[in-house]
Amino acid sequence: MKNSLLTNGQHHQHGIVQKKRQAPLPAHESSKLGQELHDGVNPLLSAALLYLHMINPITKRDKKIKETVLTILLEASGYIRNLAANLVFLDEREKDFRALVERYAERINKIGLFSINIDFEKTGQPLQLTDDEVLNLYRIIQEQINNIIKYSKAKKVNITFKANAEGIYLKIEDDGIGFDIGDKSDGIGLYNMKKRMEELHGILTIESSPGNGCIVYICLPPRLV
After folding, report:
1. How deeply is 174 buried, as exposed, middle or buried, from its count of CB atoms within 10 A (0-12, 13-18, 19+)?
2. 17-32: string of b/e by CB count within 10 Å (b at 16+)?
3. 24 confidence band (pLDDT: 50, 70, 90)
4. 27-55 confidence digits (pLDDT tens)
């Protein structure tokens, strides 16, 4: 039977920071910057390293693989530039959550380590996600896929998403080797996912045990209109 880890989102108030000339970056902003670097860039670099390991100088795939690695590294560089310049991650072309997830899954599927299946359920009146919801949910998917790449030895990953007036639900499930929740509870990846749920006042639940894969559940409460 799978063990379960549950965290409840909490609301954090930050004080107003007075600026004089070039004031240092507030502590909570520095923390968020580090979180973005880990969540946004780290999965891309991990994917790039996987491609590099796949290169065989005697095959005809070298050119295509090298081009893919270059594309991923350029995207990672773009993230770093945006964060360094304190720019907003999402522009008008990146606010479609489904399109973001599908493009990301397509890129990971090309690696060939496992297959990602995406199911956007249509129940009730569809709910338009806010920019914060898109960013944080997308980063959580990236974080968990990165964990799956590094540790799980999975062959299949299922991502299920539903958003309507009753709430927002996300499930990421893999058929990998699983792990003991108690041994992973203090990892930076899990910590970052928890922090993102706190920002959205949501609930994060992780179920896993050795030999039984892993399921990440995300639940955001209904909005108050």
Report:
1. buried
2. eeeeeeeeeeeeeeee
3. very low
4. 455 556 666 666 677 677 777 767 766 77
pLDDT digits (tens, 9 = 90+) for 95-112: 688 988 998 899 888 888
Helices (H), the chain: 27-36, 42-54, 62-84, 97-109, 131-147, 181-184, 188-200
- How far apart, in whole angstroms, are the C-alpha atoms of residue 75 and residue 201? 30
Could you tell me which CATH number the domain at 3-11+26-220 has?
3.30.565.10
> In the chain, where are the structural domains located?
3-11+26-220
Among residues 211, 116, 117, 213, which one has the least CA distance to residue 174?
A: 213
